[in-house]
Amino acid sequence: MLALVASALLVAAGLTAPAALAADDYTQSVTQPSSTQAQINFTPTTPALYVDVHYTGVPGLGQQNVRMTNGSGTWRTTVNGLSSGNVLDYWFTYEKNGPQYDTPHFSYTVGGGGTTTVAAPTFSPPGGTYSSAQTVTISSATAGATIRYTVDGSTPTASSTVYSGPISVPNSRTVNAIALKSGSTTSPVSSASYTIGTQAGCPTQSDTPNFGPNVRIFDPGMSAATIQAQLDTDFNNQKDTLTAQFAERRVAHLFKPGTYNNVHDNVGFYTSVAGLGQNPGDVLINGDVTVDAFNASDNGVALQNFWRSAENLAVNPSGGQERWAVAQAAPFRRMDVRGGLQLYPASYGYASGGYIADTKVAGQAASVSQQQWYTRDSALGSWNGGVWNMVFSGTSGAPATTFPNPPETTLATTPVSRDVPYLYVDGTGKYRVFLPSLRTNVSGPSWANGSTPGTSAPMSQFYVVKSGDTAASINNALAAGCNLFFTPGIYHLNQTLNVTRANTTILGIGYPTLVPDNGVNAMQVSDVDGVRLKGLLFDAGTANSQALLTVGQSGSSASHAANPTTVQDVFFRIGGELAGKATNSLIVNSSDTIIDHIWAWRADHGNAGTVGWNTNTADTGLVVNGANVLATGLFVEHYQKYQVIWNGQGGKTIFFQNEMPYDVPNQASWNAPSGVAGYAAYKVGSNVTSHEAWGLGSYCFFDTNPAVSSYHAFEVPNTSGVRFHSLLTVSLNYRGTITHVINDTGGTTPSGTVPVNVVSYP
């Protein structure tokens, strides 16, 4: 059954945030007809044309999306296959007088005597940007619940102020609230951030915008020969590792819904390929979307197949096998592969990828010569391969955990995920951006049972950034309440881009590259709810920036669990094209942020004069200060001090790939402040008491001075709440050594480019 997509609603004039959830419009409950069944009931106050329920928690099944059955005004669905202790997480999409609404999430414990979690509070009007003070109503869908709230950004408790009526929000602030009821579990924290005193609402943009000269838009009415000619021209410009890798050409290939026969898109550097349907199957390519070791200079290996992507389309491969032989920064998302998927070059040469998410592969996915790979929330026919570190979460068809022999690590679910925003064309030919819903304990593609749950926003709410735009024009659009859509290009910034409005979406295609000039920080995101960053490349300028991207102000403490900021397919580069400098690449201060596939890279090669120990200087790739931050697919390489510093409590990482810096001149210049040899790749702060990570690899290649060593790759507090699983070190070509894997555990890296493995720590 298709899950209907909840539309974004404008509740007040000029409001650009998502609509308030109409929590007072319904009642809901769960009963148990038998020990293995749960009946979910939903009664709308206003008769509804339809009600869909979405739920997870049935053993062996991912998220289910079901059209409920109406009986005398109450809509019902029976869930089977349950046992005592299973926890159903469920929510509803319902129609009311034309528009449709999403409810909060509810939970029900099977066999728990009907005890439920109190529905999380909702806010009306919702958090957002407003020109004047607002009067805010807080409500819970649970009858008889008491609401307690704070207005200073702190987390509410049972002793916080009791909500007794509408509250005034005269200036910018964050309101947090919980709902409590005797005999029930207290609700999760809800949060709404209000920005008061700036213009509310993006000046209307076009719904059929001009995306500029670097975006190719194909439709099924075009001849295959015409399409192929354009694809071949772009590929010839973008394919060469020696000349295109650090060039400034950027391009996107966008396919409108329909079927394309005999189309073969070879994907070169800085090229995004994407379907413009709402779901992957809306665009079908009977042909190929291919990455291989294309050039003679590649010598059959794919170790530098960076910065390219494929997303949101179906491929029926011409030879039965799709090939995506990539290295870092080359995501494969929302893809429907109607055959097999080969992640290695046709030559079987080495490759250093890679990342798959929200994807279905009908046949076998084979990594073969890939050193490491991460697959999230997908469905595979089967998997074959494993060199050092293959990690899966929420993926059916994945192998069982057998690390280190073979080196496979599998989590049944991904704790939290929210799939990427993406561009599509609606039935009237207008462009929209789809905004997928947050999912918890996730397994399988978001579109496996129909449309991806979520809302969409019209392009009239997006400022399209093109050649000629400046930091000033982009900041003006942000201040006016616009989202941003970056087209392929290079954008020099002489001032920081300030993202202050909750629920702002910044979406890029074709690897738009943001270059800070004069030492400014490229982008600062406020500590607000729901910002989505996707598809950007930050390239450090020649004057040192303290940070390229910062999420949340220092000291941020508000909870954003219900609506986190997401940083997805966002990449950082220090050197390579320019002699760039940046002390830190990404700093995350906001709690609950999801870092979903980043590559932070201090270049080890590039244009002449752009690489060297004292040339492209950079201390650290990622610094996490916020609580409960989740990283899924973390690639950080070659920084000059700690690669990752994690100070926040409750952090989690699923998959980490790292190389230490190649160009350390001598040991004396690279000893940690504690006095041990070298800097750890991944350092958890000494005050952290809770942190967990799975599938981590750190490699050394101290090519400038092979006498250099690092005492350990992972440095963590010795406490029971800090736990690591499936981690390893490797000395590539035996250029230098790593003495221990984690703290004092694990042996020294031997010759032969073979790993030292630690199954779990402590």
TrEMBL record:
This is CBM56 domain-containing protein. GO terms for molecular function: carbohydrate binding. It comes from Amycolatopsis mediterranei (strain S699) (Nocardia mediterranei). Keywords: Signal. InterPro entries: CBM56, GH29D-like_dom, Pectin_lyase_fold/virulence, SACTE_4363. Residues 1-22 form the signal peptide. It comes from the Bacteria. Transmembrane segments: none annotated. Residues 18-110 form the CBM56 domain. The lineage of its organism: Bacteria, Bacillati, Actinomycetota, Actinomycetes, Pseudonocardiales.
